[in-house]
Amino acid sequence: MDAGPPPGPPTAEADLYVAQGTPNQNFGAETILRIRDSGNNRALVRLSQQEILQRIGTGTLTGAVLRMQVVNNGSNWGTAGRTVDVHPLLVPWSEYAATWACATDSVVGNSQADCSGPTAWNMDGTGARPWRATATASTLITNSTTGAVEWDVTSDVQAFLRGDLTNHGWVLKKTEEGAAGLVEFGSRESANKPELVLTVSSAPPADQDGDGVTNGAGDCNDADPTIHPGAAEICGDGVDQDCDGVDSICPLSIAITSPADFTQVSSLTLTVSGTVSRLTGTVDVNGFVATRNGYNWSAQVTLRPGR
Predict the structure, then answer these.
(1) Distance set, CA 237 to CA 152, 240, 254 (Å)
(2) 13: which residues sit within 8 A by CB, 6+ positions away?
(3) In the chain, which stretches have pLDDT less than 50?
C-alpha cells in the first residue's frame, strides 16, 4: 500500500556554509549556516528533487518558498537593514567535502585545496562563479530579524521540474558582501532545518494568455502569448521569450556600409562606417576604435601606402 508523500514541506538534504577566511575547511556537520562579511561566509542549501516530486504528485506547482530559521542575528545590519540574495547553483557539490576552494575536496582537513576541473570552483578571484549571476530573490535582514526568513524560489523549482535547470540547490549571500551583517540560520543538523514550502494546486491553472502553457507549467508571463517555454527567443531585446531565465545574446556580426567595395580614395585618412548586431562592446577597425551610436559605428582610419 502506498503511504503517500511524507507530511510537511521538504527539508534540506544537504547544506553547509563556506568561509573565505578558512578556504580549505568544511562546515558540513555544523548546526548553523553562517552569512557574514568578515572573511565572506556564504550558505549552500539543496533540497531533494525526489521529495519535491513526491510532494507535488499529480498536482501543479504554483508556489515555492525557501524558508530558513534565524538562530543568531549579529544586529549589525545598519539602520535600514541589508539584503541577502539567493542564487541557483550551477555545479554539483558535496556536503561533507565542499569548501570555499573546492566543490568537492578529496582530502578534507589537510589545509590545502585537493580539487581540479569539475570538483573545483571559483568563489572569488577570476573565473565564472558557480551560481547564476541573476538572483532569484532577495530578502531584507534587519537588526531585529528573528524567526523564519523566506525567499520566493518558484521560478527555480519550476525550472527544476521542466528540466531547464538542474537542482544543485542555492547559494545564499549578501547583496553587498563588503558591508557589515552577520546572520546564522539553522542547518539540517539542527532542530531549525531549512524547508521548501510548496503550494500545489490539484486543479489545472487557467491559461491566461491562450498560448497553450499555464503559469504552473512554466509560463513566466501568462499575460503575453509570445512568452512561454518553447517560444522563439529574440536575442538582445531584454525579454526572456522562452522562459529559460535569461535573454539570449545575439551572435556578433559587423558590417561596413561605407565606403563601398573597390572605392578609390585620394587621402590617407578615411571615414569608415557600418553597423553592429550588439548594443555593447567596442568596434576596432585595424587598430582604430570606432565611435558607437546604437547599432551604428564610424571610425577615422589612417591608411598605409603600399600595404
Answers:
(1) 26, 8, 18
(2) 46, 47, 48, 51, 188
(3) 1-4
Contacts of 171 (CB under 8 A, 6+ apart): 42, 43, 44, 86, 87, 89, 130, 131
Specify the pLDDT at position 96.
97
> What is residue 266's predicted lDDT score, i.e. its pLDDT?
78
Task: List CB contacts of 291: < 8 A, sequence separation 6 or more.
Answer: 297, 298, 299
Q: Tell me the angle at which helices 49-56 and 154-162 cross, rounded to the nearest 10 degrees.
A: 90
CA nearest to 88, candidates 304, 301, 245: 245
What is the predicted pLDDT for the residue at 248?
A: 83
Contact 210, 223 (CB under 8 A): no
Question: What pLDDT was estimated at residue 47?
Answer: 97
Taking the C-alpha atoms of residue 138 and residue 136, their distance in angstroms, rounded to an integer, is 7
pLDDT of residue 305: 66
The overall longest dimension of the chain from CA atoms, in Å, is 91
What is the 8-class DSSP label of residue 43? E
Q: How many residues does the chain have?
A: 307
Which pLDDT value is given to residue 142? 98
Helices H, strands E: what count in the chain?
2, 16
**Nearest alpha-carbon partner for 173 in 82, 244, 246, 95:** 82
d(CA 133, CA 184) in angstroms, rounded, equals: 23
* DSSP assignments along 135-155, one per residue: -SEEEEE-TT--EEEEEE-HH
3-class DSSP state of 65: strand
The alpha carbon of residue 185 and the mean position of all alpha carbons in its chain are separated, in whole angstroms, by: 21
CA distance 125 to 35: 19
3-class DSSP state for residue 280?
coil
Sequence-ordered strand ranges (E) for 89-208:
137-141, 147-152, 170-174, 183-186, 195-201
